[in-house]
Amino acid sequence: MQQSRRNFLKMTAMTTAALMAACVAPPTAPQPGTGTAGEGGTGAAQPVTLTMLSWHFNEEGLDLFENQFATAFQELHPNVTLEFIATDSNRINDQLLTSFAAGQGPDLWEHGSSASGAGWAASGQALALDDYWATYERADDYLENAVATAYLNGKLYSIPRLMNPDSLLYRKDFFAEAGLDPEVGPESWEEHLEMAQALTVRENGTVVRAGHAVPTQGFGGIQQGWWPFLHQNGALILNEEMTGVAFDSPEGIEAIQWYHDLMWQHELDVLGGIATGLTGHPVNIGTAAMGYGGTSTLIESERNFPEIYENHLGVFLSPSRVRRAALLAIDRIFVSKDGDNDASWAWLTFLHQPDNLLTRFQVQGHMPPTRSFIASDAVAEKPLLQQLLQAAEVGVQWPPSPKWNEFRSFVPSMSEALMTDAGPVEPVIRQFASEINAILRS
Description:
This protein has helices at about 5-15, 60-75, 90-100, 115-120, 130-135, 145-150, 170-175, 190-200, 220-230, 250-265, 280-285, 295-305, 305-310, 340-350, 355-365, 370-375, 375-380, 385-390, 405, 410-420, 425-440, and strands spanning about 20, 50-55, 80-85, 110, 150, 155, 160-165, 165-170, 200-205, 205-210, 290-295, 315, 325-335, 395. It is an alpha+beta fold.
């Protein structure tokens, strides 16, 4: 049975109980929807319905978008109806593929890393934004390394909207308890291991506090696990041409083996983490003295563990082997090539006004990759956030491979296979490298 575009999206959203539509007032002023490029659009208003999909539309996110952002936008553009569709990071690709295959895709969608961005840029569904970007008055506010990974084949297909630099988080109270200087972090892998061994607490031979958190599952287990060590050793996930993997190089195998041995040889943590019944990052809940984390970890600490945040949490730059490195995640927003492009651009740039980006940071903890945010009072009043931002200077993003969506599932599978076995790691790495290379070279 044929369905209208709007009804299809409503049905999709209802499965996640997250679609919300804003009311529309009669148009009273020039509005987007006229085919004129540029922020806001010009000319006579036409009724427009925009749908936006994001995995950040949880309860507080939907409330912010419907009751604050949409209301304010519709005062400026009363001809535009806004509909919001919630998803999650595990389902977003399938949901997008299904809706686009039926010709019912959203007008805008928020997605994750530069790798995911390249995949959707290559999909044929995303609008090239170069003409809009060329006249965008705030284009220079964005960090260059955030914008650089939004390009594919010389065209700009997304706008960066969130950055999350990871760094080495630690507990000052545990450092002092172990006789270590709480203000001096490790400079090398060897120093890191020595500190982690001193910080590990065992009772009757069982680890009850990890010297360094060793996550083993999912993309979190990669990005806060062996990812930093891989890049610290001078290795890469893919080669520079993105025609094959590079994590199977001698440097890559050495780095992953080093991380693997933190648990299996040095016994700094236990498989699956130390169970406490509490929810939170191991450093926040006190089951680890050190571990990689980012903006969300700081926000979690400030909101749920305020005493830890105020008195005991610290941030070190990553140690170095060949270089300092940690994950720099850059999320982005896309515009569909098949929607009302001017209306979509007007809504996108409205959301990216400095005050609205700041509001989203305050409500949802999304740190915009802009110079104005970094220079804002919101950062100046948070010393830990300032320290975390230093990690952005040594941050490494996922490689922007157009085939990312085809091989992404192999990466966490490899990580889990590596970290749930005593080793050695090289045979597992070689096996998965071969499977990923077959996709990259097809």
